[in-house]
Amino acid sequence: MARVVVDVMLKPEILDPQGKAVHGALPRLGFDGVVDVRQGKRFELEVDGDLTQDRLDEVHRIAETLLSNPVIEDFSVHVPQDRR
Amino acid sequence: MRVGVVTFPGSLDDVDARRAVALAGHDPVPLWHRDHDLAGVDAVVLPGGFSYGDYLRCGAISRFSPLMGEVVAGAERGLPVLGICNGFQVLCESHLLPGALVRNQAMRFVCRDQALRIETTASAWTSAFTPGQEIVVPLKNGEGCYVADEATLDRLESDDLVVARYLGGSPNGSMRDIAGVRNERGNVVGLMPHPEHAVEEGFGPGTDGLAFFGLLDALASA
């Protein structure tokens, strides 16, 4: 078993009302140093067997077909170093 | 004509859509998301609601249901397909229509009677209107903000692909006040407001929505 992480973020030009709402709450809590917040999604995929290049390519296809919408989102795939 | 209305888990407006189809003089055919064929219908409506609980992204999971595979193949052959609200989101996720629908800019669910201008009658679903006609139908969405890149928006306008615009400013932040778009062929239309809730006097703001279900030129464009 291996873990692969897919991060999905709205493209920079797409307005992120949720991030804005989070950002707007920070000063009310006394946190003044944050100039912007953008909210994304993190997917942790447990995959069977060894993490081969084929398997990583498959995760890329999963990320671009289902986990993200390429019209509004970018994604990145990475393998965390601290294996469980 | 036989008009299929797809029910996904979480669809809300499928029954209203079937009722609108019947009031427009057509034969509504219930379709189930797990079906593998379109039962020979002449047109398809994807109704509003929260299919698959809006999990992941609105419409993202519905897109991969067995029936949507048939709807996409049918649309590419010219089958008239109308997506309303969540159905519009499904059509964008399916890449049958350009752009995407994201959370309302003001972060509030909007529910009201909404004035629209019909921008083009060159589609299977708007041919019964006159160009520039102003109508009022209900609008109710939390993620109805239409977005696309500038080049796509320019192309939508230059190619007459904007089907309807919000009047009096966009209620959800939609770019260029876009409330609905069509594909190049004109058989696929996505609309954020709800014409199926304005088809009978005494129930909703009037009967302006009925003409969407007239399908006058649908067979000609198919």
Please summarize the sheet with the most strands of chain B.
Answer: 9 strands, mixed
Can you tell me the CATH topology of chain A?
Mth169, Chain: A
The CATH class of chain A, by name, is: Alpha Beta
The largest beta-sheet of chain B arranges its strands as 2-1-3-4-11-10-9-6-7
Question: How far is it from the N-terminal to the C-terminal residue of chain A, by CA?
Answer: 10 Å
Q: Would you identify the CATH H-level superfamily of chain B?
A: Class I glutamine amidotransferase (GATase) domain
Largest sheet of chain A: 3 strands, antiparallel
CATH top level of chain B is Alpha Beta
Largest interface: pair, residues per side: A-B, 13 and 20 residues
- How far apart the termini of chain B lie comes to 13 Å
Oligomer: heterodimer
Run of helices and strands of chain A: EHEHE
- Secondary-structure-based class of chain B equals alpha/beta
Reading the helices and strands of chain B in chain order gives EHEEHEHEEEEHEEEH
Shape of chain A: elongated
In the CATH hierarchy, what is the architecture of chain B at level 2? 3-Layer(aba) Sandwich
Reported CATH architecture of chain A: 2-Layer Sandwich
Layout: helices, strands, pairs:
The complex is a heterodimer of chains A (84) and B (222).
Chain A: E1 2-10, H1 17-25, E2 40-47, H2 53-67, E3 73-78
Antiparallel strand pairs in A: 1-2, 1-3
Chain B: E1 2-7, H1 14-23, E2 27-32, E3 43-46, H2 66-77, E4 81-84, H3 86-93, E5 100-102, E6 110-118, E7 134-141, E8 145-147, H4 150-158, E9 162-166, E10 178-182, E11 188-191, H5 218-221
Parallel strand pairs in B: 1-2, 1-3, 3-4, 4-11
Antiparallel strand pairs in B: 5-8, 6-7, 6-9, 9-10, 10-11
